[in-house]
Each structure stands twice: as structure tokens, then as C-alpha cells.
Design a protein that fits this description.
alpha+beta
């Protein structure tokens, strides 16, 4: 297999950033300490399966494992400005979405302006669940939040909620008007925005 010249340095940088010892990484991933040490010192490469094993054990995507390490004192300088009318629109059975900052790839936060039109669980269908967490801030109207394990809660303009997205959830509009919310979904899943769009489209 071709050698990954960035993998050793990046794995070491990630380990040091989190304060992990080689033994910690080994226990999390099931990869031998001797193997990890050789990889960090560019003395051996890893198979695709081993890379996946390390990524899953550390909660990192493949892209993060092989990406160029961040240089100390040189933080990421990505920026995305959303002007009126910008964004990617998606209309589904229950929500009208406007995905923002779509020009930034591999981001861990997905900001979405969401119009809530459905008014009952019967109309909504099965609760939605996906990886990560999400924060919801009500901009207009009143919404009712349904989740597994918790009683429904109603939120009005200026109120918000933060939930574990792996828990089934649904947002409903209350009253005659629609609800308008700003949602920010977050996940370590690779290319999370595309996965989220595809899942919600179905």
C-alpha cells in the first residue's frame, strides 16, 4: 500500500493535542503501541482497514487523519459570508430548509434556516434521528419539540433547545402560522452536510 507521508506527523499532533499517550490511543483503537509508534515515526504505513479502525476509535474522519497538521500559531482562517438569498434550499415533507455557508466543506457545524410547516405527529411520520447534536433557536412563531425520553416542550420566539440528535426528534408548528428557526447541527461524521441533506431528502 502507498505510504501516507502526513499520517505519522498528524497522528502524533492529534494525540498530543488531546493529551493522549500511545497507550491511550492503543486502548481506544485496538492497534498495538509498537505499530502506532512506527507509524508516528514514518517507519511503516497502514492498511485502509487499520486507518478506519483508528479513525473510529478516536472519533475522527479519514480526512482528519491524513490532512496536513495545523501549524502552531497559524489557525484555520476559513470564512463564509451569507448575503440575502444565499444558501442551498431543500423542501421536504415537514420542513423547508435553507442551508447556509455551503461553500465551506468538511465543516463540523451545519447551520440551517428551517421553516416548520407540519402540525401533528401523524402528519410528520417517524421521528428523525442522525449522528451528532443540534441547537435550535426560534425566530418566528411557536414550535413544539417532540423527542424520545422527554415530554413535548413548546418554544416561542427567542427561546431555544439543545438536543442529542441520535435521539428521535420532531419539530412541529403550533397555531396558524409556520415556525421559523435557526438550527445548527454538529457531528464528527465526514462530510456531514451532504449526509444530512441526503437523509432528510428521503
Amino acid at each position: 500500500m502507498a505510504k501516507h507521508p502526513k499520517l505519522g506527523a498528524n497522528l502524533k499532533a492529534l494525540r498530543q493535542r488531546h493529551g493522549w499517550k500511545l497507550s491511550d490511543v492503543s486502548s481506544k483503537t485496538g492497534v498495538a503501541i509498537s505499530t502506532l509508534s512506527k507509524v508516528e515515526n514514518d517507519q511503516m504505513s497502514l492498511s485502509y482497514d487499520k486507518l478506519l479502525q483508528i479513525g473510529e476509535g478516536l472519533g475522527l474522519s479519514m480526512a482528519e487523519l491524513v490532512a496536513e497538521p495545523e501549524i502552531s500559531g497559524h489557525p484555520l482562517t476559513r470564512r463564509s459570508v451569507n448575503l440575502q438569498g444565499d444558501g442551498l434550499q431543500q423542501k421536504t415533507q415537514n420542513y423547508d430548509y435553507l442551508y447556509l455557508s455551503t461553500d465551506i466543506t468538511r465543516k463540523r457545524m451545519v447551520p440551517v434556516l428551517t421553516r416548520i410547516t407540519t402540525r401533528s405527529l401523524e402528519e410528520f411520520g417517524p421521528l428523525i434521528k442522525h449522528s451528532g447534536e443540534e441547537f435550535l433557536y426560534v425566530l418566528e412563531g411557536i414550535i413544539e419539540v417532540h423527542t424520545e425520553h422527554y415530554a413535548p416542550v413548546r418554544l416561542g420566539k427567542g427561546e431555544s433547545i439543545y438536543i442529542d440528535s441520535t435521539m428521535g426528534h420532531a419539530y412541529l408548528a403550533v397555531g396558524e402560522g409556520d415556525g421559523l428557526v435557526l438550527a445548527v447541527c454538529s457531528s464528527a461524521q465526514a462530510d456531514f452536510q451532504s449526509a444530512l441533506i441526503e437523509m432528510l431528502d428521503h
